[in-house]
């Protein structure tokens, strides 16, 4: 019995060390054509190995429903039916936006064809290339079709994608990224790639595109092929211009002789970010109090020395738990009333993991103030905390008896009083002689 118990707990420990859990849930709905489901087995098996529960549904099937009684039935939705032009009633751009507002994460693949998903992408500051214009590149020289492109992973995206990931194979459309600060670029097109007509970008098609003022010619690394969007609720959506990059074919295809592609790793990393498994932060609690105090005050006085503390944790997908995180180097605190009166760095406390603390002086102005932490960085969860506190002038007995700046007034008042006292003393105590006048005598 003892041996069985030990084996049981070893199995539990092993499972907890292998299976990664999302911070929002593990149920995944995959919307894909049944005949193409087996094309992505490597990607789906990778999700299952992490502990996700996959449910498959045809684009035109009525069940299982996405939302029931205004409550999402799944934590994540993967939409790989990129070329479907008709969906079930509950799969619409409006329902997908509703899911995002209710903290359901989305992974959506676009197509070179015009579909309802193409118009939805525009709502997220993405401008897809015109229909029928896949991304094309002739470099490097290879035997594959021009629209099957190897793309290297930039080092700047190491926060989302595992470092030193091999180049990935890509085939699909591209899109221009807007200026929305909630957009998170994940993978951009190569500098030598361009979007052109389906004939492979012949000279005639390029000339026609140039004559149209560039309407049909999109080129360069400003084009995105995979991009994320993080809503204000914390939910995430990932847009990819081609579902083929998640396929078994591209995962097993070599980018060079003896060098496997990075599609498998890239797909898992992208899904991990989309499902709020990686780069997820939260503020556990905040504290504020006066110097040499421990409890917060209902109100503070101008010029008080205040201490503000925030405790931040990061989700660990390997253990499925939240752990204190001290890796933020540019966190700031604002003490604001309409406009920030105090803006200071909020550094990590070296003695306590996950603790960020700062001391500052309350401004010499009374009113209703707020402690605000508003941390926005691409790829990381948006951290926001706002705490309202009043700042009041000192009480009538709270002022110092003498102010150094008022000594000229003190001296003036004292000198005036002393002068008046001396004048009164001399006037009252001085001797007054009067000369009496006699009759018949004239005053001399």
The top level CATH class name of the largest domain: Alpha Beta
- Decide which structural class fits the backbone: alpha+beta
Q: What integer is the average pLDDT?
A: 88
Radius of gyration: 36 Å
Total DSSP helices: 8
Low-pLDDT regions: 1-18
> How many individual β-strands?
27
Major sheet characteristics: 9 strands, mixed
Choose one word for the global shape. elongated
Strand percentage lies at 25-35%
Helix content: 10-25%
**CATH topology-level name of the largest domain:** Rossmann fold
When the domains are counted, the total is: 2
The fourth-level CATH homologous superfamily of the largest domain is Class I glutamine amidotransferase (GATase) domain
> Span from first to last CA?
140 Å
């Amino acid at each position: 019995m003892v041996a069985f118990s030990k084996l049981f707990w070893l199995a539990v420990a092993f499972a907890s060390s292998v299976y990664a859990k999302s911070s929002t849930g593990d149920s995944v709905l995959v919307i894909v054509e049944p005949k193409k489901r087996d094309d992505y087995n490597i990607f789906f098996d990778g999700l299952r190995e992490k502990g996700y529960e996959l449910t498959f549904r045809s684009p035109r099937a009525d069940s299982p429903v996405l939302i029931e009684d205004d409550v999402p039935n799944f934590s994540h939705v993967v939409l790989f039916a990129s070329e479907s032009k008709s969906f079930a009633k509950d799969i619409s751009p409006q329902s997908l936006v509703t899911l995002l507002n209710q903290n359901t994460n989305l992974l959506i693949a676009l197509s070179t064809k015009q579909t309802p998903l193409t118009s939805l992408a525009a709502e997220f500051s993405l401008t897809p290339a015109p229909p029928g214009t896949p991304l094309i590149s002739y470099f490097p020289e290879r035997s594959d079709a021009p629209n099957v492109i190897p793309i290297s992973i930039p080092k700047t995206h190491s926060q989302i994608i595992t470092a030193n990931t091999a180049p990935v194979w890509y085939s699909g459309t591209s899109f221009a990224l807007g200026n929305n600060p909630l957009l998170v670029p994940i993978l951009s097109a190569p500098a030598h790639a361009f979007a052109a007509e389906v004939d492979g970008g012949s000279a005639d098609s390029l000339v026609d595109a140039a004559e149209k003022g560039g309407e049909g010619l999109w080129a360069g690394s400003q084009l995105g092929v995979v991009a994320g969007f993080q809503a204000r609720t914390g939910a995430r959506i990932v847009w990819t211009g081609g579902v083929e990059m998640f396929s078994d074919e591209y995962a097993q295809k070599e980018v060079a002789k003896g060098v496997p592609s990075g599609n498998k790793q890239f797909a898992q990393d992208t899904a991990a970010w989309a499902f709020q498994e990686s780069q997820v932060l939260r503020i556990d609690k905040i504290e504020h109090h006066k110097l040499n105090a421990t409890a917060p005050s209902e109100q503070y006085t101008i010029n008080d020395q205040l201490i503000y503390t925030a405790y931040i944790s990061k989700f660990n997908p390997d253990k499925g738990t939240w752990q204190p995180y001290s890796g933020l180097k540019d966190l700031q605190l604002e003490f604001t009333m309409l406009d920030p009166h105090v803006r200071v760095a909020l550094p990590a406390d070296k003695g306590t993991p996950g603790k960020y603390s700062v001391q500052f002086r309350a401004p010499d102005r009374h009113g209703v103030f707020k402690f605000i932490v508003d941390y926005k960085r691409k790829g990381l969860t948006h951290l926001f905390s706002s705490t309202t506190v009043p700042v009041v002038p000192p009480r009538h007995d709270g002022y110092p008896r003498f102010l150094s700046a008022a000594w000229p007034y003190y001296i003036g008042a004292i000198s005036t009083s002393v002068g008046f006292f001396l004048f009164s003393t001399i006037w009252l105590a001085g001797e007054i002689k009067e000369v009496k006048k006699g009759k018949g005598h004239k005053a001399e």
